[in-house]
Amino acid sequence: MRIVAPCWRPSIEGENSGRGDVAGRVDGLLWYKDSGRHVNGDFSMAVIQANNVLEDHSRLDSGPLSSLDSGPQGTFVGIYDGHGGPEASRFVNSRLFDNLKKFTSENQGMSEDVITKAFLATEDEFLSLVKKQWLSKPQIASAGSCCLVGIICSGLLYIANAGDSRVVLGRLEKAFSEVKAVQLSSEHNANFESVREELRMLHPDDPQIVVLKHKVWRVKGIIQVSRSIGDAYLKNAEFNREPLLPKFRLDEPFHKPILKAEPSVLVQRLHPEDQFLIFASDGLWENLSNQEAVDIVNNSPRNGIARKLVKAALQEAAKKREMRYSDLKKIERGVRRHFHDDITVVVLFLDYSLISRNSNRGPSLSIIAGGGVFANGST
């Protein structure tokens, strides 16, 4: 912990923009911000580390969604689940939101096209970085990140996903007085038949585009996700050679990207029945079903709810290994990865009275998980 603590220590600029824990708190390998306000309601965030180096990165931004004073206001959530190292997820966390604001300004509004452009621009920037560092740091070519983004703007909800993180909506079914789970994101994982079919259609001349290894479907027998930012070694053949590690190198050449960075985008209007959104990396969903997560949020106090979801996932992970939760908590990072993944959770509660005003304005807020709270526009 003497090594990891400086990476987690939060820094604060501006005014006290949260409630209760202000910039978030650290408890061993857990970072959490139990409660805060975004322009459309309350929120809660939590991250638990399992890898030697945290590969999950995330942020929440509330306020301006463009660089223009007259531009739209809203709430942005980004969940970036890295693989092959933290470089891609860390880079996306620092660049994607800025690119989104740039294209929102240029297009004078939010749209599906704006979000897609932000993803692809961030991808281009990261691949340029890989090219610059290829000779000195070739293994960055094997770093990639799943990217899940949610935006609330002008009464609309935009969900963009590349990879296998997931967002689930808790929606009140008035006829039954129950809150039902509604999955909003499309996951790009080769274990889904629809994803394998898409890959075969995109690569009709490659019979080995998906391979079943140890009962798990993988793209080229290497990676489960079919979309990501990064993973340059599967997008540009110039990076699929020495000195990249042999386990990432393909035997046969390829002439077009094997993985895509373009996200699947959903746009829908929010309604009074829409109660809350749960954004999380796949580490949560490996241990909790959509409805289990929604039931926990619906039946618990808002304060600390993201931390409670993380705990529920860890309890389930311990149960699967026939061990006590208290013993799991004692396991150090790195070794922890054998029991569960890094897990990031952001819960957004939806206040329809605020959402329906459209021109909602308030103090701007930016929280980078584990890295601090930045208020009134200073990031």
TrEMBL record:
Every PPM-type phosphatase domain range: 42-350
Alphabetical list of SMART domains matching this protein: PP2Cc (SM00332)
EC number assigned by the record: 3.1.3.16
InterPro entries from the UniProt entry: PP2C, PP2C_BS, PPM-type-like_dom_sf, PPM-type_phosphatase-like_dom
Top EC category: hydrolase
Family designation: Belongs to the PP2C family.
UniProt name for this protein: protein-serine/threonine phosphatase
Originating organism: Vitis vinifera (Grape)
